[in-house]
What we know:
It contains six helices and no strands. It is mostly helical. The two termini are 29 Å apart.
Amino acid sequence: MITEDIDISWKLQLRHWDIFFEPRALCWILMPETLKGLWKQRLRWAQGGAEVFLVNLRRLFHWQHHRMWPLFLEYACSTLWAFAYAITILLFILSRLMPLPDNLAVHSLFPPEFTGMLLGLMCLLQFVASLYIERRYEKKVAKSLFWVIWFPMVYWMIGLLTTLVAFPKVMVKRQRSRARWVSPDRGKGSL
Length: 191
């Protein structure tokens, strides 16, 4: 497994351990400071998620692991969404280059007004909740609120692209190969 933390958390949950978010837990995390570093990190996470998902797929269908079904459903829907959106982008480009049947032509990549408004509202509610949770530790977070509106689009596009690259990579790779850690560019400056 390329991401041992995801693997361990799934193993614990499959053995009926509970894993919770603890807002008072503090840790120091170095984040990638370049787009290339962010891409490598997210690609590794997407590949690790796909590996853990595929390794545990059969076990998930047993009743004793029904607690994992929401996680299974979320991962399956996210992966299906990535491939469906990629097909939508392809059909959008093709419909600009040549005439397509009405049932295949895609005229816009943006969601309809009402759906877009609902997505925006849900995003805003999630950010309000996260700001509430982090208010003790992040005192000056309000300064970055302008950039918050772009986060979901950038996050979803990076997730989309890394899933499209990682999932097929996991499907065709030789099983039981050992992972090799290559440290990303976290923290450009020396510590």
